[in-house]
Amino acid sequence: MDSHSVTTTESWGSRLGKSIVGVGIGILLFLGSFAVLYAGEGRAVNRAKALNEGQSVAITVGSDAVDAANEGKLVHTTGRATTEETVTDPDLGVALNSLSLRRRVEMYQWTESKKEQKRQNLGGSETTVTTYTYNKEWLEKLEDSNDFNNPNGHHNPDSKPFDTGRFNAEAVNVGAFTLSADQINRLGGAEEYTPDPALELPEAWRDRATIAGKYIYVRNALNEPNRVPGSTNERDPAKNPQVGDLRVSYEQVPAHDISVLASQVGSSFAPHSVKHGSIDELADSTKSLEEMFTTARQENTILTWLIRLVGFLMMAGGLAMVFGPLSVLTSVLPFMGRIVGAGTGLAAILIAAPLSVLTIAIAWLRFRPILGIVLLAVAGFLGYYARGKIAARSGGAGASAGGDSVGAYQPLDVDLPSSTPRSSGTQSAPPGGNEPPKKKGF
After folding, report:
1. Looking at the predicted structure, is the pLDDT value of residue 155 above 80?
2. Using CA atoms, how far apart are residues 282 and 74, in angstroms rounded to an integer?
3. Strands 177-178 and 86-88
4. Confidence at residue 36, expressed as pLDDT on a 0 to 100 scale
5. What is the DSSP string of 162-198?
6. Residue 60 has pLDDT above 60, yes or no
7. Distance (Å, whole) CA 298 – CA 306
8. By three-state DSSP, how is residue 271 classified?
9. Which residues have C-beta within 8 Å of that of residue 75, sequence separation ≥ 6?
10. Roughly how many angstroms between the first and final C-alpha of the chain, as a whole number?
11. Which helix (H) or strand (E) holds 315?
């Protein structure tokens, strides 16, 4: 591991220019969030309707025989997914009877991580100290060392001789039915697979590979010749990896019970079309027809909320970028820039929350009017609440400058020690009445 630091200072004008460019990006994010939220609600409603339509016509059939009378119908069946085939990794020769064999290929590479420490200076400039740290790690994705801040001495290979892959059986049966290629690819239930230590590797890799535990290590270091067994320069990549070496691991999908909900096409399956979409569900366990639809509805709900979260974050992030120049403008005094930055960030959230609900409500007015009206009421309340919060913050700031506005600061009436005369802005009424004190003449 090695590291180095780079210190840079960005002027106030440069920061302001970047924040102004950010305004344009922020506007695009802000506008795009409305489309994401609206389309997301439309997708959710259509999916819900499609599931309702499917549930009204779906039937449960046995998997032991194919009934031609159910051709084109939405059928639900359960059974054990099996295959008679042997799936093989064509590069390393690993082979076994399984529904699917999944190969993960990692390369030992240099990685770059960076840590930034920013400091705002009087006058609006900003100093950044960036520390770059370099380590060697096993990674599945290739790291482009040309993008490193300091590529010298940290070079990575540009490619792998073979990569991560998946090898599926061509025919997977569930009783008398055969799964489609897409369904086979969606099968879960993967388990870790440990290669046989006695595995005879292909000749191309025999002198460069070592089987250790669940991994096959392949010497692929740059400019390194094939090892010669018994030689003094023999290197074991499992114990002494070098940049460029490969580490291969496997998962297999064994035979297991599954449930299918799809259109019967011959002795196989295909997505079942309904008015508002299609249905093609697969579960890696035995589930009833009712449970299949319940799971599908739960997945629809989760996806809907994820889309809502993405839309809200786009809206809040876009507004924060639009407000960005304000914090840069006031950062001439660093503490003011931090205060304004925090305030604009809070304002972005308080504005985005009711606008997001309002957009969802408008979408539901089209798809589900009653719920849309309820959401409009919620959006109105959130808007009123956010307006009050922002006004309260503004009022508090204004009152600190003076005036009799509501919420202004009032000094506490504290009793001082008796040795110190107490002054008051008002005079008390004389005993015996409320007559104001007489003015003294000259």
Report:
1. yes
2. 13
3. unpaired
4. 97
5. S--EEEE-S--EETTEE--HHHHHT----EEEPPPTT
6. yes
7. 12
8. coil
9. 58, 59, 60, 61, 260, 261, 262, 263, 264
10. 90
11. helix 289-322
Question: What is the pTM for the complete model shown?
Answer: 0.76
Amino acid found at 271: P
Dihedral of CA atoms 156, 158, 160, 165 in degrees, nearest 10, equals 110
Structure confidence by residue, pLDDT tens digits, 391-428: 665 554 444 444 443 333 333 333 333 334 444 444 44
Residue-averaged pLDDT of the chain: 85
Residue with tokens 């020690």: 417
**What is the residue type of 372?**
G
The position carrying tokens 């096993």 is 138
Amino acid at 346: L
How is 81-146 classified by DSSP, letter by letter?
Answer: EE---EEE-TTT--EEE-SEEEEEEEEEEEEEEEEEEEEE-TTS-EEEEEEEEEEEEEESSPP-GG
Residue with tokens 């959230």, as numbered in its chain: 349
What size, in residues, is the chain?
442
Q: What is the residue-wise DSSP string for 319-364?
A: HHHHTHHHHHHHTTSHHHHHHHHHHHHHHHHHHHHHHHHHHHHHHH
Q: Given this model, what pLDDT does residue 147 score?
A: 93
User: Model confidence over 323-373: pLDDT tens digits?
Assistant: 999 988 888 888 888 899 899 999 999 999 989 988 988 888 877 777 667
- The residue type of 182 is D
> Which pLDDT value is given to residue 372?
64
Lowest average pLDDT, out of 23-32, 252-261, 356-365, goes to: 356-365
Amino acid at site 10: E
- State the pLDDT at residue 374: 74
Residue ranges per structural domain of the chain:
2-47+297-398, 61-286
Whole-angstrom Cα distance, residue 12 to residue 125?
4
d(CA 121, CA 333): 8
Q: Which two structure tokens, joined as six digits, stand for 7? A: 């210190």
CB 95 within 8 A of CB 234: no
Identity at 431, one-letter amino acid code: P
Q: Which residue has the higher pLDDT, 390 or 238?
A: 238
How many angstroms from the chain centroid is the CA of residue 438? 77
Distance between CA 37 and CA 362 in Å, rounded?
10
Q: Report pLDDT digits (tens) over 274-294.
A: 999 999 999 999 999 999 999
